Amino acid sequence: MEGSFNTKEFLYRLKKRLPLIIIITLLFTVLSGVLSYKFLQPVYQASTQILVNQTAGSATGDQALDIESNIQLISTYNGIIKSPVILAAVIEELNLNDTVATLNERITVSSAEKSQILQIDVEDGSMENAVLTSNTIASVFQEEIKNLMNIDNVRILSPAEMPAISKPIRPDPLLNMAIGAVVGFMFSLGLVILLDQMNTTVRTEEDIEEIIGLHVLGIVNSSKAEKAVKKTTVNDEKGMKEHVEIEKKQAISNSKIGGSY
Length: 261
Prior knowledge:
By secondary structure, the chain is of the alpha+beta class. Helix content is 62%, strand content 10%. Helix 2 (18-39) packs antiparallel against helix 7 (173-198) and helix 4 (84-94) crosses helix 6 (127-149).
């Protein structure tokens, strides 16, 4: 019936197209893996932690007030770390091929709520360069803050270190392959549905009723019809052979009668 959805028939058609669905899903999965492993450049991340604390000379004697003052400085220090003053000095010291803007894009400065610890995260295509850049930013900031704010309250708490095994933060090949498999499966389902909609072959009695607007009274089994055609053909051939034999016998009989006179 028009507008109805036959779940059983839909699942049957999916099963019929199952090889196509599997091939497309595997193809998307393999392409995602190849893209992740061979073409996407790995990105590594190194982190350095610095501690913001009051010096002995600037302490007020009220520990809670000193801590609150340090926390208020965190947001200010966050902006200073990513400022051109610091980044330009880092680029010059390490002789980087970055501009201040491009280096800024690879740096993230964060801190936990009500914490005196700042964390500097640097991303790079090389783990060694990421570690070196992160530690250099921290050391340059530690020196420059003395001149910028006339205060010496920054200490490097945890410098970045080279891990035994460098693991990039992206791309994640397994995640990309899983996403590729899902996308491939959805694409194959859409393709199967599209092919099914474009197929105008009459397949069921309902299709015939919908096209011609009449009810189907009976169905001739294709195998029985084929056998009937074959039987008719055999009978016709047998009848022709018998007719030829009769004609031959009559011709021989006539020739004998004519020769006796």
